[in-house]
Amino acid sequence: YRRETAKDGETGQTLVLVDADAGEQRDLNHGLVSGSRTWERWAIDPDDPTSASVNIDVEKTGGRDGQMWKTRAETRMTCDRENFFVKANLKCWENETLVFERDYADTIPRKLV
User: Fold this and answer.
1) pLDDT, tens digit, for every residue of 15-74?
2) CB–CB of 61/34 below 8 Å?
3) What angle (nearest 5°) sits at the alpha carbon of residue 5, between those of residues 36 and 14?
4) pLDDT tens readout for residues 84-110
5) What is the 3-state secondary structure (H, E, C) of 56-83?
């Protein structure tokens, strides 16, 4: 696990960076393997609240020898004065074969926020 706060010298943004690697575990009773890792990048210009953004990527793995799966969700949220903008990409693999991928996008009005 690593959490870091920094200031981007080029943009002036304040950043919070998180890398949470839970590793992989194997249940010795039945052989099931599971693992996860999460990456987060939070950013904001202190002088502009509408510059706030976050990227969060999550990867989960699991299965047993010869039958592994993996999912990866890549998400992003930004905003302006009127809306929040949410985007995501979801991918799923069976062993090393990509079996599913979908992109998502939505705009959410900033009602009273």
Assistant:
1) 999 999 999 999 999 999 999 999 999 999 999 999 999 999 999 999 998 899 999 999
2) yes
3) 115
4) 999 999 999 999 999 999 999 999 999
5) EEEEEEEEECCEEEEEEEEEEEEECCCE
Q: How far is CA 52 from the centre of its chain?
A: 16
Query: How many Å apart are CA 113 and CA 110, to the nearest integer?
Result: 5
| 54 alpha-carbon distance from chain centroid | 9
DSSP SS3 for 26: strand
Q: What angle do CA 109, 47, 15 make, to 5 degrees?
A: 85
Q: Write out the two tokens for 103.
A: 């992109």
The residue among 59, 68, 63 whose CA lies nearest residue 36 is 59
Q: Is 32 helix (H, G, I), strand (E, B) or coil?
A: coil
